[in-house]
């Protein structure tokens, strides 16, 4: 990849800001596509964090079972009332099994060669949610194995944490030639954009939100997450409005500023000057699998209840009906689903609740996985067909019935969710299940 910033003839110094495992996965996909091959494992002199041994970072280890060297990257949730199984630290922090790697061209640690592409440092702006933190730890391990530097920031670790994080990043932000971000709606990211001088900006997928971001940018609208659109701005929104407006201007391409969107999602409105690059999950397919495909079906959960879009009772009834109709035995929980909700699902549906410790695209690619995967409208109806291409696994999506929506759901919710389903490629579309 020819450099667009930094010294001539050298790869641009790239900072990537991520706040979720999916964002980190898509940064790895972007780096794989643009660099062609992963760089060598960095030494401390290369800028690796010497205070954080590989796989540990600076804070808590990922929760849950199944993270050891041979088990699946998922934790099975105990039945209601049962205590969570304890895991030794070595199991909780276990690396991805070596036998799943498909990387015959591994080079000498600490040595970089021409053609390695972007000089990439991943900055994790750590959330507080334990499941998200756990998946981010596992993904950070994979990023280090691919030779990238990882900088873990406790960005939400108290009142003064944002000041320490932003102050500590100011220098590297000003020196960066390229900024990669997973969530342009993030207030943290928007604030960091006001500091950087980089004129090469890349937005990688943060799920279905990417579709809304591109559309809002094309229409010149303020950046607002789809499930909040239509509501009245709060006091914090008004206070932050100047920063958000500045970020939108920074994300608008110009003669001096290049903006790329790296996405597996369908993009219908492309702003003038924005480059859209397809994410085909080439790194995921080269790195893992193919999986063992089992009979039966797996269900994929959603956090639409937690975000206030879908009624909890209706959702429970829909999951029960889908499990019965498709003979599903497992339910892959979204990382933001509430434990109480999952315990009730397990008790009332008989499903085995699995909390993946990696993004579902990687868990499914590693296997085993059911021959049919049933999901509600979400990112995975677009990404799983790409990650599982050639495996024979069928992805089916169940529409959200308007009657399932809460009274407080955004007026745009139904149209947006229908669009997510309608634009999905290589999936089987199911009608909304009857709850009668």
Rounded radius of gyration (Å): 21 Å
- Secondary structure tally: strands: 14
Q: Which range best describes the helical content: under 10%, 10-25%, 25-40%, 40-55%, 55-70% or over 70%? A: 25-40%
Instruction: Give start-end ranges of low-pLDDT stretches.
Output: 1-11, 37-72, 78-117
Mean pLDDT, to the nearest integer, reads: 77
| Quaternary organisation of the protein chains | single chain
**Biggest beta-sheet profile:** 7 strands, parallel
Give the H and E element order: EHEHEHEHEHEHHEEHEHEHEHEHEHE
For the largest beta sheet, what order do the strands appear in spatially?
A: 4-3-1-5-6-7-8
Shape: globular
Number of helices: 13
Distance, first to last CA: 56 Å
Please state roughly what percent of the residues sit in beta strands, choosing from under 5%, 5-15%, 15-25%, 25-35%, 35-45% or over 45%: 15-25%
Structural class computed from helices and strand pairing: alpha/beta
Give keywords.
32% helix; alpha/beta; 7-stranded parallel beta sheet; 14 strands; 436 residues; disordered N terminus; 7-stranded mixed beta sheet
Detailed description of the structure:
The termini are far apart. The chain is α/β, with parallel strands linked by helices and 436 residues long. Helix content is 32%, strand content 17%. Helix 12 links the parallel strand 12 (369-375) and strand 13. Mean pLDDT is 77; it is low at 1-11, 37-72 and 78-117. The longest helix is centred in the first third of the chain and has 16 residues, at 130-145. Helix 5 (187-193) crosses helix 7 and helix 9 (312-326) packs across helix 10 (339-349). The chain has 13 helices and 14 strands.
């Amino acid at each position: 990849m020819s450099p667009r910033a930094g010294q001539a003839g050298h790869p641009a110094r790239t900072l990537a800001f991520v706040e979720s495992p999916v964002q980190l996965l898509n940064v790895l996909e972007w780096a794989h596509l643009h660099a062609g091959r992963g760089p060598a494992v960095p030494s401390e002199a290369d800028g690796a964090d010497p205070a954080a041994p590989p796989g540990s970072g600076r804070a808590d280890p990922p929760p849950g079972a199944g993270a050891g060297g041979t088990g699946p990257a998922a934790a099975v949730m105990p039945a209601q009332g049962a205590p969570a199984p304890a895991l030794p630290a070595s199991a909780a922090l276990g690396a991805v099994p070596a036998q799943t790697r498909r990387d015959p061209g591994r080079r000498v640690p600490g040595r970089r060669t021409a053609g390695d592409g972007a000089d990439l440092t991943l900055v994790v702006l750590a959330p507080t949610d334990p499941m998200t933190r756990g998946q981010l730890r596992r993904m950070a391990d994979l990023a280090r194995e691919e030779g990238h530097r990882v900088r873990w920031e406790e960005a939400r670790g108290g009142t003064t944490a944002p000041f320490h994080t932003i102050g500590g990043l100011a220098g590297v932000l000003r020196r960066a030639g390229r900024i990669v971000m997973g969530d342009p709606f993030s207030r943290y990211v928007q604030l960091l954009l006001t500091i950087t001088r980089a004129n090469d900006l890349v937005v990688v997928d943060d799920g279905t939100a990417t579709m809304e971001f591109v559309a809002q940018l094309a229409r010149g609208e303020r950046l607002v997450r789809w499930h909040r659109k239509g509501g009245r701005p709060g006091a914090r929104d008004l206070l932050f409005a100047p920063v958000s407006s500045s970020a939108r201007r920074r994300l608008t391409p110009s003669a001096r500023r290049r903006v790329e969107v790296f996405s597996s999602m369908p993009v219908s409105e492309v702003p003038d000057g924005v480059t859209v690059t397809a994410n085909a999950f080439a790194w995921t397919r080269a790195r893992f699998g193919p999986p063992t495909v089992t009979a039966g079906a797996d269900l994929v959960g959603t956090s639409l209840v937690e975000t206030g879009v879908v009624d909890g009772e209706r959702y429970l009834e829909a999951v029960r009906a889908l499990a019965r109709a498709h003979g599903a035995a497992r339910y892959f929980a979204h990382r933001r689903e509430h434990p109480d909700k999952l315990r009730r699902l397990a008790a009332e549906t008989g499903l085995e609740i699995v909390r993946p410790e990696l993004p579902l695209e990687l868990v499914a690619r590693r296997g085993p996985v059911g021959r049919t995967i049933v999901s509600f409208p979400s990112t995975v109806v677009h990404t799983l067909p790409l990650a599982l291409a050639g495996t024979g696994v069928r992805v089916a999506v169940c529409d959200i019935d308007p009657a399932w929506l809460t009274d407080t759901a955004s007026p745009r919710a139904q149209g947006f969710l229908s669009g997510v389903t309608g634009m999905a490629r290589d999936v089987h579309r199911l009608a909304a299940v009857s709850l009668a």
